[in-house]
Amino acid sequence: MKTTNKQNKFTLTKLAQLIALSGLALNMAGCGGLDEASDADDHNGETVYDFAPPQPSTGDEQYSLLKQDRERWMNAQGEIVSLRGVNLGNWLMMEMWMLDSGENPVGEGIEDQCTFEATLDARFGQEEKARLMDVYRDNYITDRDWDIMQEAGFNLIRLPFPYQLIEDDANPMTLRDDAWQYLDYAIAEAKSRNMWVVLDLHGAAGAQGWEHHSGCAGKNEYWEGDNVEENQARTRWLWQQIATRYKDEPAVAGYGVLNEPWGTDAETLATNVTELYNAIREVDQTHVVILPGHNSGIDAYGDPEAAGMTNVAFEMHFYPGIFGWGEIGYDVHRDWLTCGQNGTTGVCEWDEKIRQLDTPFLIGEMQPWAGLGELGGPVTRATFDRYNSLSWAATAWSYKVLSTNGGQGNGTWGYVTNKGERLLAKATTWTCDDWNSTLAEACETPAKIVTPTDTDQTFYLIVKSGALGGQHDVQFDNLQLIAQSDGEDVLSNGAFDTAADWIEWSGTNTSPQDDNLSVEVGYASGDENVLRLSATEGFSNGGVYQAVELKGGESYLLSGTFADVNSADMWAEIYLLPAPPENGQDISAAAMTKIDLNNDSKEAIEAYFEEMSTIEYEINQSVYDALTASEPASIFNFPDAPQSLTLEKTEAGMSLVWMNVSDATYNVYRTTSSGSNYQLIAENLDTEMYLDDTTAEGVTYYYIVTASNGEESYPSNEVATEIFYADIPGRIEAEHFSGQSGFQVEDTQDEGGGQNLGYTDAGDTLTYNVNVTQAGEYTLTLRVASSGGSEGIAFTMNGNSVGSIAVSDTGDWQNWATISTTVTLEAGEQELQLTALGGAWNLNWMEFTAN
Q: CA Rg, the chain, in Å?
């Protein structure tokens, strides 16, 4: 069967998709070769297949020029190519947050690439600025980075770059002398590893959106102002230069003509991109041109083929769990990748759109591992697998993110980060006064297994303590740093039996003998000898250290005990650093130099740039393991949702019954707010019924049930008890809302116990169903707690304002007080809404008393 009708092509592709997703493999050897299955001459040059073309596993495809084939990315040999990769953000196009977190990562007022380069220019001149930028770029991405990306199995690199990398900004429509230096390098490195490259114009002349990642924050002159025509003409010229350079280069997967061009409306964007497409096609008829989606979607383009565009792809950026798209966690990725409870939303909705348009798809940016810890690996693998099963290409943002303290933690935005793990354990009197614990139970930073170095290297274990003044006494004992492969303790005299092996060090004076800290190795404390660091007055800071020989790639665990003996304003810390401490200088967990482009010397700035190529890396191991595993991730393999949940009120309580789900147990959830804030009240049930005998009178409860086989299903239908209207006059418990936005329920320490609402921010709302039995004036009393006070709360009845009240400072989040105001209410069943005018208050109950 051969077809050219789009609807028929769509159906055939769906069938092939179902076959692929079911894990079935079709042996095509007896069905004729690829040439027998297609006939381009009969269909105006379009190849039409009797069956879906072959789709080898990622990395097994033949490496050749990519092209559009309906909604698929295909190579010159007719194979569907599964493209999965990363962005090389912060290399050619910079974003300051990727150099460090927090405010002013590289100096005050430096918020984007424009101010970054302008600062260097103003301080050192144009030529030195250009040289320093080359130093940065030569060191930020090197051969080891390309090797790491290849080892992870990435075969697509999205390469963000600014226009001024190619164009001489001082001489518009003139190439820089070194215009192709970095694009040529990237393409050559990718090509040598069978990777494709998407050339992504991340910052166009004038900036195509107000965000910092267009190059200049707050600038939108590609779309607005006096220079729009010039900036757009320069961009068409730029793409023609790029297309001329790379029109015969098979390593280029496509031209990403504008990144996130959201400074205009969707229709204007589509018109402009069509002009860019036409400019490229005057030079290059072979490469895929990537049409950027608007933040509202891709509908403004219509059908590219109908508009005369061929060999194109659409691009969107999808960030489940981030930027207001739900919360980071399992649920948001499950709902997106498995198409929601009804199987029609998420990727399915986009798949339908893309297949109707017969156009390939690139998810140019996504972030499937940040904040997910060990779950990040399975979610990332499942995301790439799902996208590739739909013939989508995808590149995660981003390959590398740096920070002063380094480390992956629970998963940073970088697949690679600079190695952290310098602070091994910490406790302070501010967090837990008078502690006496193991290092594994340290109240601020518990000891954990770390892998400090990739190569054999000498490190220094540093035991440090200090106080702001007054009494200071902390004692350490039985320290061990154990190699996990063979159990060897690499520390000497960690029991402090003698005064040997440890070197005294002062963080405040060039001579330890001149500071306020008393260091006693082998101090007799009861029946044990310990390390005692103490002072009786004045500021103190210092300790002891010793060199340890660490093996590359080996993991180590620090153990031991430490105790605070009646100290005040004191800290105690243990570090593992690659250099010994120097007397008179404090140390920190910083894994990388901090820089200030406004004030640091040119030599210091250059050294900071050069450090980029030598810092030790920490790879997100969970992501690496999942991407390189021979089998897909075992995730999102959840059972069906329980069906036909019913609720009956009995003398014994609320009786819930539902239909059986094979090979599953059940979890029951309850809330007082329909559709949100469900609390688990029973889990791992092995029967299809549950009796809730913990309900309170005068409260409406809503229930759902899920099935579990190790992973949890979508929820059942929701059922509810009789809708309750709280009587006014009377008391209403805060947690008995019918709806809410932004609050969290927590156990209260107020008299009477129970729960209160907290974590309030301005704009949060609470809704209650109430029945005002008699119209008139009421005193409204609220039980509140606040640390710092707040503008308070506004009250409405059926949307009409009835008053407001400020919340004063009660001294702490669980120091409770009553406040009152007067309101006038109409009689009848109504909806009471509380809106937070300001944050920083907790609510336990409110009470209406008739005046």
A: 32
Identify whether 398 is preceded by a cis peptide bond (ω within 30 of 0): yes
Q: What is the DSSP letter of 49?
A: B
Q: What is the mean pLDDT of each run of 10 residues along the chain (851 residues)?
A: 30 34 30 34 48 83 96 96 98 96 91 97 97 98 98 98 97 97 98 98 97 95 98 98 98 98 97 98 98 96 96 98 93 96 94 96 98 95 97 98 88 94 91 91 90 92 93 95 96 96 95 92 92 92 97 94 92 95 91 93 97 93 96 95 96 96 97 87 97 90 96 94 92 90 90 92 93 96 94 96 95 94 96 95 97 93
Q: Can you list the alpha helix ranges (DSSP code H) found in 214-325?
A: 228-246, 266-281
Q: In Å, how far are 202, 343, 646, 676 from 640, measured between CA atoms?
A: 43, 12, 17, 21
DSSP strand pairing (689-692 vs 156-162)? unpaired
Please indicate, yes or no, whether residues 204 and 352 belong to a single structural domain of this protein. yes
CB 650 within 8 A of CB 690: no
d(CA 66, CA 715): 42
Closest by Cα among 374, 336, 364, 367 to 633 = 374
Q: How many domains does the chain have?
A: 5
Q: Judge if the upstream peptide bond of residue 512 is cis by omega within 30 degrees of 0.
A: no
Sign of CA dihedral 626, 627, 628, 633: positive
Checking DSSP bridges between strand 361-365 and strand 393-396, what pairing results, if any? parallel
**Each residue of 165-184: b (16+ CB within 10 Å) or e?**
bbbeeeeeeeebeebbebbe
Asked whether residue 783 is assigned to any structural domain, the reply reads yes
Asked if residue 302 and residue 219 are part of one domain, the reply reads yes
Q: Is residue 632 part of a domain?
A: no
3-class state of residue 473 by DSSP: strand
**What is 517-567 written as a DSSP string?**
-EEEEEEEETTEEEEEEEESSS-EEEEEEEEEEE-TT--EEEEEEEEE-S-
First-last CA distance in the chain: 83
The torsion angle over the Cα atoms of residues 715, 719, 721 and 722, rounded to 10 degrees, is: 140
Q: What angle do CA 478, 484, 490 make, to 5 degrees?
A: 45
CATH of the domain at 664: 2.60.40.10
CA distance 849 to 237: 74
Q: Are 287 and 252 in contact (CB under 8 A)?
A: yes
Pairing of strands 449-450, 556-564: antiparallel
Report the alpha-carbon distance of residue 375 to residue 371 in Å, rounded: 9
Q: Clarify whether residues 541 and 690 are in a common domain.
A: no
CATH number at residue 755: 2.60.120.260
Please tell me the distance from the alpha carbon of residue 851 to that of residue 847, in angstroms, as a whole number: 13
- Is 742 within the bounds of a domain? yes
Where is the domain boundary, 698, 720, 742? 720
Tokens 């030598």 -> residue: 614
The parent domain of residue 468 ranges over 421-586
pTM: 0.78
Q: What does the chain come to in residues?
A: 851
Q: In whole angstroms, give the CA distance from residue 540 to residue 361.
A: 61
Residues 225 and 173 in one domain: yes
**Co-location of 466 and 579 in the same domain:** yes
